[in-house]
Please model this.
Amino acid sequence: MESAATSPGPRPDTGPGPDTGPEPLRRQARFLREADQLKGVARQSSILDGSRKENSAEHSWHLALMALVLRDYAPPGTDLNRVTAMLLVHDLVEIDAGDLFVYADAAAQARQEAAEQAAAERLFTLLPPGQGPALRALWDEFEERRTPEARFARALDRLQPMLANYYLGGGTWQQHGIRASQVLDKVALIADGSAALGEFARELVDSAVRQGFLDRGQ
Amino acid sequence: MESAATSPGPRPDTGPGPDTGPEPLRRQARFLREADQLKGVARQSSILDGSRKENSAEHSWHLALMALVLRDYAPPGTDLNRVTAMLLVHDLVEIDAGDLFVYADAAAQARQEAAEQAAAERLFTLLPPGQGPALRALWDEFEERRTPEARFARALDRLQPMLANYYLGGGTWQQHGIRASQVLDKVALIADGSAALGEFARELVDSAVRQGFLDRGQ
Model:
């Protein structure tokens, strides 16, 4: 299936931080200034009043709020504070790489991955050397999806647009002709992070099919 | 000084949660659906490319990211995970009450406080009874500004728009004719949460005056 990433390429540096304050704080302020650009990265999903596309900054907030509200569905022993931290930084690379639709093809996914690696390199090295690598490691952990924390974070990242499509009565499922079988592939990833949320997502898909705004497929 | 809150009043209920899943999860999904509306609450400050006003959802994300990046400036012993949780929920009441400009007069502040209390009552009771009160308590703690966690969270909430005004070369300071002495009143609140960030904010004000985009005032 064809799908183009909204890939603006590396953006121009927004310039130095404030001309004042101790060196680490100036670097941190510079990073936080750069981070502001995530508010201008449009995702595929709309916000729930349907008025416009969601941006990746407000999406990240929604996910972190979900981690707080849905914490009981994480596997026992999951470090929920690391989940939250991961969710806060997980989309920063989109400042350079743009957002890729979750149903994009393999070639587009590979291009996206390369762009995101370059973006991570640029962004996290803006921070003081004693701090950048730790935040970069959080992003790597999210991408690698090996730890329970990363799996739970990724589950939320998949569940949120699914809920949006459900509430919007179709959303990107309808816009892109996505069928239930394709959505269920993503549900497997949710179940991998949280059995209870996986079950809930499966029921959402069934309900959407039943209500007629998601195509049952084959 | 006159200033109007963008106060839409209580919004219509967005309806029931999904028709599926166990009761607590349905309530939580409903709360998270309601929370989506924070993406439509405009603040006074612009995003840093100057293209539009910031909304309260992406602002909340930026603050939570600040808590992660600037954690070393919190007083020793501060529970930074509680700071983050507080920042994630602190603006939810604006879904009903709207955002009030930080330099609004006392009467407007009092009206805003009443509207926010009613909003907190409505929103947090959407959650399961075993969860709503704990999240409501986080919001109360933020508002009361007594604990080190609340003071640090409030410091970040004041510092973020100050940094935005600095980077925008004036921003709301110029739009509303705010003078350095008024900004320094807010800096005191930052210093109350973090000595280092208070000092940094004071230097930002000096630098803004020096560069000519903040009026020195009396």
In short: Residues 1-13 of chain A have pLDDT under 50 and may be disordered.
